[in-house]
Write a structure and sequence with these properties.
- By secondary structure, this protein is of the alpha/beta class.
- It has 18 helices and 11 strands.
- The strands form 3 sheets. A 6-stranded parallel beta sheet has the order 3-2-1-4-5-6, sandwiched between helices. A 3-stranded antiparallel beta sheet has the order 7-8-9, with helices on one face. Strands 10-11 form a two-stranded antiparallel sheet.
- Helix 1 packs across helix 7.
- The longest helix has 24 residues.
- The chain is elongated, with a radius of gyration of 25 Å.
Length: 444
């Protein structure tokens, strides 16, 4: 296991097994990018032993995404924390043999290759089940394992558009935009993790000899379906009445007043004063009790109809006061509000700090002897909270192949095969080989 990530937030060294409910669960992660690795991260966070299989020499492409220095991004270190890295070429016979040896001891296999890829490599569900009849298989892809679009490659951006989500993001007089994070991958990863634990629970409840076949223990997560699942009543509203939701900028369709407003000095605040009981107090705070008393504004439908008028009145008040004053007055009145935080704000946020949601590490910006150490780097903590405070991150995403020899030895492979695999993975000596090409079949 890599030893370069050693500085855990103070006071968090005593995490015990009762706060790691997945201790003893073995996960084999065959995924790249964000979706399946997010599922693997969530399982690892709560104690599962996650072996992340990466391609030789280049590893998961995420190592090079948002790379500000060195050869391993902090995005990779974040998404792949608490895992072990194993380098194998799944397209080689030795790599296939090694993977199947790892499958024998696994509870869960996670994968997000393009549908049909594992089957072409001789690692399809039937082969996996023959090696491990108790296995849970979790498959993440753009459009799912079945249906007319199942063979299409695609990333979260395409899935977000296909799900209807992108149509609702942005201002009504401009083209749709994307949110600033890969939300489609993250939501799909959460659903994959939930599906994995759900299938583990069902497997254990069924008991030995009564477990259903692997086809019934396969979790099939489609990126576009994961996003479609959070679209609330978009489809029922249209199906019932023909209603079509449109982009509303900082607002949420049908809910008012709830928006972002600019304060004196240019800082912004989000205020959600849309509850019937809250609205009257809200209008008192901004000096417009006349609006709070108006008969047509006593329910949400009336306020939505008057949303432009309300936003003008609220914006005039916030624009005349600094952010601290705005927040203080609204808190006194019990009106939900909050500043729009930057990354710097988050690092210093006392609420996040109190719940161990900011944890600091010394971390290398790459592997090998030329790696540069970055000191006291803040990383996000683990959610959800168990036992009153967030669990400590045990280690960050490992260096490429750092755990290959250990994992293969644990799997009982012959020393000669392990030696060949290490050599093929470029782990015994430096190599002048260029980056390995990523094929379309490896896309979700």
């Amino acid at each position: 296991m890599s030893q370069i990530h050693t500085q855990t937030a103070a006071g968090d060294e005593d995490a015990t097994d009762d706060r790691l409910p997945l201790t003893g669960v073995r996960v084999l992660e065959l995924g790249n990018y964000i979706a399946a690795p997010t599922a693997g991260r969530m399982l690892a966070d709560f104690g599962a032993d996650v072996l992340k299989v990466e391609r030789p020499r280049t590893g998961d492409e995420l190592r090079g995404w948002r790379l500000h220095s060195g050869s391993t991004s902090l995005l990779y270190r974040t998404i792949n924390r608490n895992k072990r890295s194993v380098v194998l070429d799944l397209r080689s016979e030795d790599g296939r043999e090694a993977v199947l040896a790892l499958v024998r001891d696994a509870d869960i296999v996670l994968e997000n290759f393009r549908p049909g890829t594992l089957e072409r490599w001789g690692l399809g569900p039937d082969v996996l089940e023959s090696v491990n009849p108790d296995l849970v298989l979790v498959r993440v892809s753009a459009f799912g394992q079945t249906g007319p679009l199942s063979s299409r490659p695609g990333f979260a951006a395409v899935a977000e558009a296909h799900s209807g989500f992108r149509e609702l993001v942005g201002d009504p007089d401009r083209p749709p935009v994307r949110v600033g994070v890969s939300i489609g991958d993250s939501i799909a990863g959460m659903q994959a993790a939930f599906g994995a634990v759900m299938m583990l629970f069902a497997r254990e409840r069924a008991g030995d000899g009564q477990r259903p076949p692997l086809t019934r223990r396969t979790v099939d997560v489609a990126l576009h379906e994961a996003m479609f699942s959070v679209m609330e009543s978009l489809v029922p509203d249209h199906s019932a009445t023909g209603a079509l939701r449109t982009r509303t900028g900082g607002r949420t369709e049908g809910i008012a007043p709830s928006n972002a407003y600019t304060c004196e000095g240019g800082e912004s605040v989000v205020i959600a004063g849309n509850g019937d009981g809250i609205f009257t107090r809200y209008m008192e705070v901004i000096g417009r009790p006349d609006l709070g008393a108006r008969a047509d504004l006593q329910d949400n439908a009336g306020r939505w109809a008057a949303r432009d008028e309300l936003d003008r009145a609220i914006g005039e008040w916030t624009g005349a006061h600094p952010l601290a004053h705005v927040l203080e007055r609204l808190e006194e009145a019990g009106v939900p509000a909050g500043p729009i935080h930057t990354a710097a704000d988050l690092i210093a946020d006392p609420q996040l700090r109190a719940r161990n949601m900011i944890q600091e590490f010394d971390v290398a910006d790459g592997g090998g002897s030329d790696a540069r150490m970055l000191e006291n780097i803040a990383f996000p903590g683990i959610t959800p909270v168990l036992g009153g405070t967030g669990l400590p991150v045990r280690w960050l995403g490992p260096d490429l192949g750092a755990d290959t020899a250990d994992a293969l030895t644990e799997a009982g492979l012959a020393p000669e095969l392990i030696s060949r695999l290490l050599s093929a993975g470029g782990l015994e000596a430096a190599t002048d080989a260029g980056p390995e090409e990523t094929t379309d079949e490896e896309q979700a």
